[in-house]
Amino acid sequence: MRFPPAIIQLRRAQLVLMLAVLVPTVLMTAIGIVMLAVGSSSLFSVVLGVLVLAFTATAATGYILGSIFVGKGASLARVQNDFFSSVSHELRTPLTSIRLLMESLADGRLPEGERAAVIALLTREVSRLEHLLVRTLDLSRFQAGRHAFEMLPLPMTDLAAESVAAFDAATLVRPTTIELDLEPGLILIGDRGTLTRAVLNLLVNAWKYSGDDKRITLRARTTKRRVEILVEDNGIGVDPAERGDLFEGFTRGRAAIDSRAPGVGLGLAIVRAIVRAHRGTVDLLDSAPGRGSTFRISLPRPPVRASSHAELATVPARPTTELP
Question: What is the pLDDT of residue 139?
């Protein structure tokens, strides 16, 4: 027997819930109001009318809560369907390439020089597939809360130093200067490894989606109750119509696709999952097509005692204002 998709089942459940609860509740509410209006001289009628209205109010509350849960379930099912559809699409390309390359090798008719080139392409596609799977699993682990975050006081200078060093290693093909504008003595509470990865993803995105004259700035500042980390670039920018889905997995803007920059749209989704685990938010603060973008990570500001402890414990970081 073939069952309909989960999202269809949930929508049907929502309809059944509405017919089974909402319609009788409306009718009983009307009866309760009539009993209160007609039987105002009878204590029994008044009490019965109040009880009927109380029951209908409870039923209406139950319907609202049930509808919310069913709606969330339907949304989750839709997200899962979109996720698996996107994963299948992204896996199909490297798998197809691997199959064709292996068929070419199996024929045994390739010259030695071409065989070496095919093996190199095969190695590249396998690496690409492995990278995609690792990032997908990481995103799933972050979103499901299965990653152990070690929340400790972390000086912003250390976070910036490690992020820029990782950025340096990731962009060896074209070293780029990173300007730093860090508020002195800034401390935050977080997991060093994952926060470094979040900032690195924003820096690499800024690098990928900027032209030849790349200008990237990493800023950090405090507000009343928050610590804000900003990554600014002079790249291709983001269309306002695409902002809503920007942090969804496997989602890329039209300008990003047209620029032919490598990527599958997981970087910002991973950033959001990491920042949410730190009880923070990430958003696109400012952007316009052709005029660059500014992404902002906002984290809770640590108490003064934690900041003082981190300042005493920190080791001076190496200068990271510029990349070689």
Answer: 79
Percent of the chain, pLDDT > 90?
28
Buried b (16+ CB within 10 A) or exposed e, 208-225: bbbeeebbbbbbbebeee
% helix, strand, coil for the chain, step of 5: 60, 15, 25
In 3D space, the residue among 242, 258, 141 whose CA is nearest the CA of residue 197 turns out to be 141
Is 124 found in the same domain as 45? yes
- DSSP code string of 243-270: GGGTTSTT---HHHHHTT-S--S-HHHH
Q: For 267-303, what is each residue's pLDDT tens digit?
A: 888 999 999 999 999 999 888 888 899 999 999 998 7
Instruction: Provide the whole-model pTM.
Output: 0.65
Q: What's at 181, amino acid-wise?
A: D
Q: Cβ neighbours of residue 3 under 8 Å, at least 6 residues apart?
A: 9
The DSSP bridge partners found for residue 179 are: 217
Return the structure tokens found at 234. Answer: 């002079």
- Residue span of the structural domain in which 213 resides: 152-313
- Strand 226-232 and strand 187-190: pairing? unpaired
Q: Is residue 270 part of a domain?
A: yes
